[in-house]
Every structure is written in structure tokens, then in C-alpha cells.
Amino acid sequence: MPNVLAFAEQRDGKLRRASLEVMTAARTVADALGGEVHALLIAPRNTAAMAADLGRYGADKVLAGESAALAQYVPEAYARAVADAAGAGYHTVFFPASPMGKDLAPRVAVRLDAALASDVTAVGVESGELVVTRPIYGGRIFATVTVEGACRIVSLRPNVVRAAESAKAGTLQPLALPAEAGRTKVRELKAAGGAKLDVAEAPIVVSGGRGMKAPENWSMLEELAAALGGSCALGASRAVVDAGWRPHSEQVGQTGKTVSPQLYVAVGISGAMQHLAGMRSAKTIVAINKDADAPIFKVADFGIVGDAMEVVPRLTAELKKPR
């Protein structure tokens, strides 16, 4: 039976949203092949509760290993544990294309001598073969690729698949883990930017582009984000990041992060194709641009034609009024 394995990433005993998206993609492939989905979970605790969530999103079985030594990601130990489990004959092994997944998937592919398709944006099965779509040439074009081999390794870009419940048994099966973490030991973790919300996971995103005119004007967007609430994150266009105005961690687009928030506010962003590819799945899109013919308005639900330097302060002031 052509079963599929999905690596479930967790942090502090809680599943990452990208893990549920991977489960949905794995379920789609397994159903097309007539097989099962098995999830692989490594955590210091709480595996039973997380296994129940994985079952709700399509896992027939959850291979779960608890280890205090592997509470944080340790490359050699994780790669060995996943490769040992994946060596049982899975058709495809899925990973989130998160920082961890991008590091782990190639390590597992080397151990299994398996084909690797990284950062894919769509998956499917055609004539019994796994077919994926992934960006190439710096995200300028997309290639549709047939992935062949005894085992296929795929990392799925976050936010390109919407997690959907598909309740299965989610049977919990203990996973044997390496006795030691290996040569690398994690001594301390420091979050960049303190408690700053990741743009890829925020339910509200305010993004700025060249229309903000200068990096010092970003304070306007910070005030707008604050007025929208603590669940709002700041994003940026590629042009702004390339100019050094904002860090790459905030870049939205094919060569940055794909976002799918409830509300996306694009300020001074013209709407180049590579940017639209990273945010067009947002539930509601609001665009502010002084060019009435800007491509961003073609995908926007609401649009304001005007200078961001004038519109943003007025919008912020309105949001701050008592309701």
C-alpha cells in the first residue's frame, strides 16, 4: 500500500500551523494513491494531545517519540530518527518548508538516497505519479515536476494549502528515538526581535512598498498595525527589502514568505506578480496606492486611491476612535 509520511513540527509542545497544512497535502496524495497517512512527531511532552489533533486533520497513525533531549531541533538526531521511520517504505515524505523543514528534508533525502522537491506550492497525483509545482529562477517562473523514485521527499511552502479537517483514527504508536542528541547540543534559544509576530502566521498583516518613500516613514505603518490590534504583523515588498529598508524576515512574495491572513493591507505596493503570489489567498485585501491603474487593485476587495503619506495617518486616526 503506497502510504505517505508527514513530519509534524511542534514548538513548546504545540503543533505549528504549517504541520496541519502538510497533513492536508499528505491526505490528498494518500487518497489519490489509495494509501494511509502516518504522521511523525518528536516532542518533549504532550504527544497524546497533539496526536489527537493530527488525527482530526487526516492522520491514520501517529508515530510519536517523547524525549527531553530532543525538545529543541537537533539536526543529526532528528534526521536519523525521521530517516529510520521513513525507511519503512513510504511513497512520499512531507515536511513543512519552515526553517526547520528546509534543513531537515535534505538531510533525510541524503540518508534515504531519495528525490527531493523543496518549497513546493502545489501537489497532486497524475497517472499514479507524484506531481508538484515549485518556483525556480528566483521565483520568476513555476515548474511542474514529476517526482520519481522509491521514496520522494517534499517540503511544502507554508500557507499555500489551507488546512482542512479530515478525521481519521490517529492511532498513537511509540517511536524509538536516538538515545543521545548527537554531537550538537542546543544550549539556548533567543527569539529575533523579542516577541515579534511572524508575518507568515499573523491573522492581520500590514505591508509597505516603495510608496512609503523612505524607511523612516515606517513608523506610520507601525502605528496602523498597533491600531489594528496585537495580532497584526508588518510585511514588506521585495523592492523595499532589497533597498535595505526592512529585514528579509518581513518580505512577502515568491522569494519571501507566503501569507494567508484574514486581513491584508497593502500600502504603496504596486502589485507585481511575485508579490501577488505571496498574498493573494488572504481573506480580505485592502490596497492603498496613488496609481489607480496599479495591479494590486485587481485583487483587492477594497481600494483607496491616494498618497499613503496622507491616507495612512487618517485611517489610523479613524481606527483609534472609540467604537
Explain how this protein is built.
By secondary structure, the protein is α/β, with parallel strands linked by helices. The chain is built from eight helices and 17 strands. It has two domains: 171 residues, HUPs (Rossmann fold, 3-Layer(aba) Sandwich), CATH 3.40.50.620; 117 residues, Rossmann fold. The longest helix is centred in the N-terminal third of the chain and has 17 residues.
Topology (SSEs and partners):
Blueprint: E1 4-8, E2 10-11, E3 14-15, H1 17-33, E4 37-43, H2 47-56, E5 61-66, H3 75-86, E6 92-96, H4 99-112, E7 115-120, E8 122-126, E9 129-136, E10 141-147, E11 152-156, E12 171-174, E13 204-208, H5 218-228, E14 232-236, H6 238-242, E15 263-267, H7 273-276, E16 284-289, E17 302-305, H8 308-320
Parallel strand pairs: 1-4, 1-6, 4-5, 5-12, 6-11, 7-11, 13-14, 13-15, 15-16, 16-17
Antiparallel strand pairs: 2-3, 8-9, 9-10
Helix pairs in contact: 3-4, 5-8
What would the keywords be for this entry?
323 residues, alpha/beta, Rossmann fold, five-stranded parallel β-sheet, 17 strands, 27% strand
Tally the helices: 8
- In CATH terms, the superfamily of the largest domain is HUPs
Q: Taking all residues together, what is the mean pLDDT? A: 92
| Structural class based on helices, strands and sheet pairing | alpha/beta
The strand count comes to 17
Query: Distance between the terminal alpha carbons, to the nearest Å?
Result: 58 Å
* Highest CATH level, the class of the largest domain: Alpha Beta
Describe the largest sheet: 7 strands, parallel
Strand order of the largest sheet: 7-11-6-1-4-5-12
At CATH level 3, the topology of the largest domain is Rossmann fold
Shape: globular
Oligomer: single chain
Q: Roughly what percent helix?
A: 25-40%
Give the uncertain stretches in residue-range form.
none
What integer value in Å does the Rg equal? 21 Å
Order of helices and strands: EEEHEHEHEHEEEEEEEHEHEHEEH
